[in-house]
């Protein structure tokens, strides 16, 4: 089983657009969306959910106003300002440490599991899909990412599929690390802008740290010729293969407005491009090299 992760050092590079086009081409696969803080692959894949599971992580204090004596001890002990005047619980600030429940002399506070979001088993027109949504303002997205990866692996095993295609989060934080470890290839999507090049360097360093092979796709390559040359030169210097370049195209917007992938929108133009990208990615996951252009 091989897992290919599509990530970018910054948002807005077209990562999900490229992931969706890869989902619509290449070998049979399981699709996973690990961008749980801002999941949007489902908007194009339009999966039918077959199972929905609540995601609990950490704890949250619950106050019983009938038992509370308003002594204020919990307010004085809380270091997160999660208890306001009048012993009013500010749930959005609660870290779930449980100190308030420990010190409460009236037993008016108890700790409960924290509902942080949901994850889904689904069927899409591109194959089975596992995805998730973190609740607004909730944390522990790294744990939810791990859950999505674990479940996508189970689905691949159950259905005898050898490939998992994962849409990862942007950036280099905890969710990205949870997505990246032990994958077979990280496809880094970038664009010719100064900030994207800076973030490409950071995400590449992260892949090196975890010893994950990486390759680059340069999106919107024609919006700045000079910076596109810098990206190409950086790839050569870093010894990271540049597998594909895409120029700016209004096909992306027109396809999204119709809820389609690029491959579905103009199959004759885009399918060969992404089939070629698949061949190169699969070669890299097997220790080979990209095919000559």
First CA to last CA: what distance? 27 Å
Task: Give the C-alpha Rg.
Answer: 23 Å
Per the principal axes of the C-alpha atoms, what is the gross shape? elongated
Q: How many beta-strand elements?
A: 11
Give the spatial strand order of the biggest sheet.
Answer: 3-6-7-2-8-1-9-10-11
Helix content: 25-40%
Total of DSSP H or I helical runs spanning 4+ residues? 11
Low-confidence stretches: none
Query: Major beta sheet, specifics?
Result: 9 strands, mixed
Order of helices and strands: EHEHEHEEHEEHEHEHEHEHHH
Strand content: 25-35%
Structural class by SSE content: alpha/beta
Mean pLDDT over the residues: 93
Structural features, described:
The protein has 293 residues and is α/β, with parallel strands linked by helices. It is built from eleven helices and eleven strands. Strands 3-6-7-2-8-1-9-10-11 form a nine-stranded mixed beta sheet, with helices on both faces. Strand 6 and strand 7 form a beta hairpin. The radius of gyration is 23 Å and the shape is elongated.
Task: Please write out the topology.
Layout: E1 2-8, H1 15-23, E2 30-33, H2 41-45, E3 48-63, H3 73-77, E4 83-84, E5 88-89, H4 99-103, E6 109-124, E7 127-134, H5 141-159, E8 163-170, H6 174-180, E9 185-190, H7 194-209, E10 214-218, H8 225-238, E11 242-245, H9 251-257, H10 262-265, H11 267-285
Parallel strand pairs: 1-8, 1-9, 2-7, 2-8, 9-10, 10-11
Antiparallel strand pairs: 3-6, 4-5, 6-7
Helix pairs in contact: 5-6
């Amino acid at each position: 089983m091989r897992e290919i992760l599509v990530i970018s050092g910054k948002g807005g590079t077209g990562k999900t657009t490229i992931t969706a086009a890869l989902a619509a081409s290449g070998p049979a696969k399981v699709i996973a969306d690990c961008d749980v803080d801002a999941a949007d692959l489902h908007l194009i894949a339009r999966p039918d959910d077959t199972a929905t599971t609540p995601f609990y992580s950490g704890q949250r204090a619950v106050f019983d106003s009938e038992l509370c004596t308003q002594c204020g001890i919990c307010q004085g002990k809380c270091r997160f300002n999660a208890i306001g005047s009048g012993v009013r619980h500010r749930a959005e600030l609660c870290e779930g440490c449980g100190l308030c429940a420990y010190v409460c002399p009236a037993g008016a506070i108890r700790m409960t599991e924290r509902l942080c979001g949901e994850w889904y088993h689904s069927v899409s027109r591109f194959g089975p899909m596992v995805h998730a949504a973190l609740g607004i303002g909730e944390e522990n997205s790294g744990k939810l990412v791990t859950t999505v990866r674990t479940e996508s692996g189970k689905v691949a095993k159950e259905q005898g599929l050898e490939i998992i295609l994962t849409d990862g989060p942007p950036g280099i934080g905890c969710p990205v690390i949870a997505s990246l470890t032990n994958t077979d290839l990280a496809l880094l999507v970038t664009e010719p802008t100064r900030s994207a090049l800076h973030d490409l360097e950071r995400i590449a360093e992260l892949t090196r740290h975890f010893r994950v092979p990486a390759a680059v796709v340069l999106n919107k390559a024609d919006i700045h010729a000079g910076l596109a040359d810098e990206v190409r030169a950086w790839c050569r210097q870093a010894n990271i293969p540049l597998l594909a370049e895409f120029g700016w195209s209004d096909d992306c917007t027109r396809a999204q407005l119709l809820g389609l992938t690029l491959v579905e929108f103009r199959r004759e133009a885009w399918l060969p491009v992404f089939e070629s990208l698949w061949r190169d990615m699969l070669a890299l996951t097997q220790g080979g090299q990209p095919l000559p252009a």
